[in-house]
Specification:
single chain, 499 residues, alpha/beta, Rossmann fold, Thiol Ester Dehydrase, Chain A, eight-stranded mixed sheet, 18% strand, elongated
């Protein structure tokens, strides 16, 4: 079958944007950071300044989102008219306010000026595409491409064709949006609000009823969503957990519309034909998205990744996780001395599967994490707790050296022993040895130099009180141990034989 000439794996050369507000500015940022030139038409006097601000926000987010180098940025040009914005571009994206007459006028003008081959899309949140394409010269080139705010971050774009849209335009649009990092979802038939907004509207209606009836506040409603099924649906959707048709039938028969909990009481006919359709689609979902682990394991792994990401921001469910972990640390028994040698021993750790890199063994960054956790174990042993950190200070890493002596794989159980090599009022020198459980040969070592930072001045300052006494006491014990062979060894090449 010959390749569709409208399908591309690369972003378009240039796009014309009609409207540079919240949605249009988000489109501009996504396109520009993907190396696409943007011609913007927006009569507002501050349109360019607004888009530049949105672009700066997107740059900041993308630096945190990916370490892969981005292409050279596309150019942003302000056009004097709709015709100037759309002439010669590959894609036109209209993002004007939700007024049918305004959108129809802009799209009709764009269709005349852009020519018969330009793909023209609307960002409308709810108008059916057949209404929007009514006045266009080339309605076959038009469809809805509905994004979500912030457009430069959220990947979903709903694609919906009108009565006169050429089918090949859906394929062409999907390829363009995939090329700029989006997930195109084709809406099977025209419907007001498409898919995601209709779901959101149902939740919003019920939420406002709960507020109206004094059942909950807006804060309580947000917490109910983001601390529960909002997380689960974010990682797995709503119906993947059914595990196929039989599970879907059971879910519907057992739970669907059994209790009049919601103000939205209208329901579809739950006859045999509907159950068969739902079961068939659930089977298709499982077939299209096969898992190499049990579904419940995949769900849990995805939730772990999401919660750990939120923990790194210290917000919402991530803050709850961090607070729980801190409580566990503070309630944990003190670390034990290792086999009477005096070295501190971390609890045994099983290597998780997500620590594995493309070569099939533990990624280098995870060895650094293990050493950092071992340092945290020592801090707990000498009495550095939340009160000490807030009133006196904490140790911060200045330098770390890793030495890889073997390989670790998923499921390996590892232990870390830690030795204090040196200490003074401000500095702490540590050496970590990573071994498999029950083994003696190290698979890696890590050496760290840390500095004590005062909580008040945020500068280096002396370790204090009982923490100091406990640390110096441990250092005296460790001073009696043999110094590790690899401690303080510099990295060097043997003498070169090249003359």
């Amino acid at each position: 079958m010959p390749e569709n000439p409208y399908i591309t794996r690369t972003p378009p050369r240039a796009v014309g944007l009609l409207g540079g507000g919240v949605i249009g500015g988000g489109w501009a940022a996504r396109f520009i950071l993907n190396g696409v030139d943007v011609r913007l038409y927006d009569p507002a006097p501050n349109a360019v300044e607004y888009v530049q601000k949105m672009l700066a926000n997107a740059r900041r987010a993308y630096r945190r989102l990916t370490g892969v180098p981005l292409p050279i940025e596309g150019a942003l040009t302000l056009a004097d008219s709709v015709a100037d914005a759309v002439r010669g571009v590959d894609l036109v994206q209209e993002s004007a306010p939700e007024r049918l007459d305004l959108k129809q006028e802009l799209l009709a003008t764009a269709s005349r000026a852009a020519g018969p081959d330009a793909l023209i899309c609307s960002s409308t949140s709810g108008f059916r595409p057949s209404l929007l394409q009514a006045e266009m010269d080339h309605p076959e080139c038009f469809l809805v491409a509905h994004p979500f705010q912030p457009v430069y971050m959220l990947p979903l774009v709903e694609l919906c064709s009108g009565e006169r849209t050429a089918p090949k335009m859906l394929d062409r649009a999907a390829a363009i949006f995939r090329a700029i990092g989006m997930h195109p979802l084709v809406v099977r038939k025209e419907v007001d609000g498409f898919i995601a907004n209709r779901l959101g509207d149902a939740i919003s209606r019920e939420s406002l009823w709960l507020v109206h009836d004094d059942v909950a506040t807006l804060q309580e409603i947000d917490d109910a969503v983001r601390y529960s099924w909002g997380l689960r649906r974010a990682v797995m959707g709503a119906y993947r957990m059914a595990d196929g048709g039989e599970g879907m039938r059971e879910t519907i028969e057992q739970w669907a519309f059994k209790w009049p909990w919601s103000r939205l009481t209208e329901k579809p006919n739950m006859d045999r034909a509907f159950l068969d359709k739902a079961a068939e689609q659930a089977d298709a979902l499982v077939k299209a998205d096969p898992l190499d682990v049990p579904t419940v394991h995949k769900r849990d792994d995805l939730l772990v990744a999401l919660l750990q990401g939120l923990r790194s921001q210290g917000y919402g469910p991530g803050e709850t996780l961090a607070r729980w972990e801190q409580g566990l640390r503070e309630r944990a028994p003190l670390p034990q001395l290792h086999d009477g040698s005096g070295r501190l021993r971390m609890p045994t750790l099983a290597v998780p599967s997500d620590w594995i890199d493309g070569n099939g063994h533990v990624a280098e960054s995870r060895y650094l994490q293990v050493c950092s956790d071992a340092t945290g174990t020592l801090a707990h042993y000498i009495g550095i707790d939340a009160e000490y950190r807030s009133q006196s200070g904490a140790y911060y890493t200045l330098e770390t050296h890793l030495c890889h002596l073997g390989e670790l794989h998923a499921g390996d159980r590892i232990q870390v022993s830690t030795q204090v090599l040196g200490v003074d009022d401000k500095r702490l020198h540590l050496f970590h040895v990573i071994t498999r459980e029950g083994g003696e040969r190290p698979v890696a070592t890590g050496e760290q130099m840390l500095i004590h930072v005062d909580a008040g001045t945020k500068r280096s300052g002396p370790v204090k009180g009982d923490v100091r006494e406990r640390l110096f006491g441990l250092a005296r014990v460790h001073a009696q141990l043999p110094r590790p062979d690899r401690a303080s060894a510099s990295i060097r090449l043997p003498p070169s034989s090249v003359s």
